[in-house]
């Protein structure tokens, strides 16, 4: 059994840092977006979704981010507050930036795409002056996500948050969440992802994301070597996801654990990773065995991909427990 | 009586040039946008609305513009085609630009606002290579609108179109439509608006818009002097709008005509100018007396501001005729 | 005989507007710049050179421009003052811009090239607030040059200056001076050159420069048609230069005059155009016949290309008169 | 006695990475630059100067950098080659970048300033594809300098070089060389300096530079604590310079050594740091005791600041030995 050492003398369980945006999900499914006529508005962004998911499960969550000074920005803060997330770490941009948008298109459960608006977005305007050492010091874990590393000054803000977290024994969790359209090049991405991952305790990503990070090495997609590399820095748990084939979690003590997926009626694939991460983290913070935490993550993902939204669909423990009771995990 | 000399040997009545974008109108009214949950998608942009309005009235319309290479761009082209507008002059951006967005907020009929997404928009990527002399030569009138002058290369494309229009006796109509958020400064705006207006036959704008253009002169908001200035270049008709107090049209022969407004149940104020322009132009092209064209414009505006969208609400001649029959114009 | 109507009730003869920069001329000639070791510093920029040349000939010159807030900017202002040019229209940039640089390489008299530093240059930061109507109103002529049209806000400042000049009967002289490296595209250049040229009284350029401006037309390099085009706007004199084959000047009254070149020992080709323009303008302002003004321009050019600098080598009337006395113009 | 472990099986002693630029030193001293008339051209840039200085002392040096595709870029490569520096790691920019320039002004030995041209410079276009693992692997030491971290893609190239160096036991030396004008903010600078310094074996900087790096901590300018911080990462030697009061070197084994300065006739202060670094590194590579290496550094600095250039004035061992023989170090 392997447990991450979350400090108990902290008032916040999990702080997300980074992207806060708006999902505009087409109300009409199974058709190209040209033929949809209306969109429903949800809070989105990987770390926002994970913070919402964790809060839904009962964790005390907070957020460090920046929103636009307009109706979209205010909607985001109001939604987070209504979901019992501490928003004292959220700043309001004063430079005229806008909220990032993600219009979703669901042609079929297997064919989903996103049309992004990422020019001049407020979330990437987060700067070092918006990061409070005191706030991070009072939390058990800090969750970072790749997109916040994509541009200055947000990138520097994240590296400063990482420094504060390491200094105060805050467990750092990195959900890789690589979105190529946000970056100038895969080379640039790899450099900053690696610099950040060196400072993290828990790293969660897909095989393809780890491959991107290893582009300057010759690794041959070897999960074991990937995990060992990060254990040589500060990592204690490395989770590598292989899509519908499930995932594998390595721990620093040498063990590994395979996780499966749950049956579900898929509406769209968006949100699978974020819901997995929030429930997996919930398990870690409850000092569950890794396999149990992975099962919880998979069940949460199965629920979210059967629903219309990502954030708003995040399940409660009751919903997850019910699904697990109904099904056996496919190994 | 004053008539503009539209050439009759042309296959297209009116070509719009410039902004093609998407309006996302909140489905819930009379509340701040933070409290709305969904949006309906419409084609928008002042010259697009005017082209649609003209087509709805029976004119043969065309468009010179650029759309994004995504679902939003394709939706725009499909909608224009469905409205019998010739889209052969519309190019598709290949640089990764997006479609401009306008989220509307209707707090009350008197308190409407727009949240714009104008970074990296496809409409401003229109360039001189996208402007066909042959296409312009085959039209009776060219409609330009201020926003297309806001940035390179769209600005140069419009000036080239103006040159082609003057060369081939195409009547140029300038709907000022000044949107400050698109511009770097009021000074920059004034310079290019003036350079364009010098080459136009018909200029339509609000008193505030003409004031902006006259900022380097001392004019004291004098409508008559404003009109005389443009008659000294190429203008034949100058329409100056004074909001709910109606408008005044000057013609080069020295006459002026005041126009009133129609009673209506206002839902929102958006689209008033575009619907006015399309019906007024329709009147000019039918060689109507100026007062009759102004009345048609006012009636069209009264209809559009009582409905949810701008473009999709553009009336037919039947709808306008019915409203005029029902009411007397308030002078 | 054709005379331009310069108003006599003005305290300044000629105001230049636009580029003020530094030439760094290699002290070692007839070798590639890799093999030169030191550079001498001179004031440069086409309109600066013309203002200096005119002042050297005895005209009362002034300048509207912007310099960097550093040693280079202060050197430029000091040099102009020392040459009796009024610098009250020169502003100092406060945004951290630098002075444009031109490193010259003289491999042989026929093979000269320039290495330019034009990023973030102060001269292109000139804005409409730096242009005084009163200052322009007090001058007989305004000289513009193409590079100042290359970017905002300098471009708008020039168009405003043109408006003031036309309003107050100030003769506008346009030295085309097309520098491709300053521009985004030849199409963009042509649009703004044409808009400016429409407002000018005297236009001076090479055949290649006029070809660039006519790229949207089919003209076939016809000097006569080029001149006629501009006479249909406001031009009264159009000078078209054909390199070593001399130049031709058209006047609005239908005459044309060919000018030749003087023999000289060429050190480099830089500065030929600027020295020609300053002496030609000097002739016009003295109400000389066109051929005599052209001869004066050619003699001035012959002197400057035999010397190391452009600005500092500008001749006095004595020097020009002596050269003319010595030689017959080669027809 | 403390020795850095330089691997002996390497064909190159020291590779510099980063800034390659041109110094234009006023030929006239002791006056403001407005009153100077000519400039002499030298290769410049901190890591370039250090590579040249090391080569002058007999080390086998190489360089990883990018130069402009023009006469300035070619001059730099030719000069390095002539100084026996391996230039196989230098790429040529293809994007139209220019060579950075530094015009020096020597008002008095105490009052020297630099006018920089750093817009669109080739050195910051170095990218990850220009960094060869094989090249770094064949060297004993890699020298980095702060400016190369100032912008993408150069920053990523340096971090990749650091990874290769650590992987292959190449000693990494960081000459902080903080140039504020190159950076967006001091906060941004601190984040990347710290990320880089964590991976370095030898760190050399002024007290002010270390203060900048510690701005997110409370350290109170404590040299000892500064050194300890870096020893907790990979550092083995930390040199902190206190201007004319000399410097102090800390080694990981707990010792510290104070170094003094040599008497000299100062012409200008430029180049002091670079000449110090090159001779100090020369000492380290010869396994000298730290105090002897520091003395060598100080003597080299004393020579360079008495001469006109930085790079071209770098001394040979004979010159340094002679100065040391002549003087006692002022403690």
From TrEMBL, chains A, B, C, D:
It holds the Pfam family PfkB. HAMAP family: IolC (MF_01668). The keyword Nucleotide-binding applies. Gene3D superfamilies: 3.40.1190.20, putative 5-dehydro-2- deoxygluconokinase. One of its GO terms (biological process) is inositol catabolic process. It is an enzyme of class 2 (transferase). PROSITE patterns: PFKB_KINASES_2. This is 5-dehydro-2-deoxygluconokinase. Signal peptide: none annotated. Its EC number is 2.7.1.92. NCBIfam families: myo_inos_iolC_N (TIGR04382). The lineage of its organism: Bacteria, Bacillati, Bacillota, Bacilli, Bacillales.
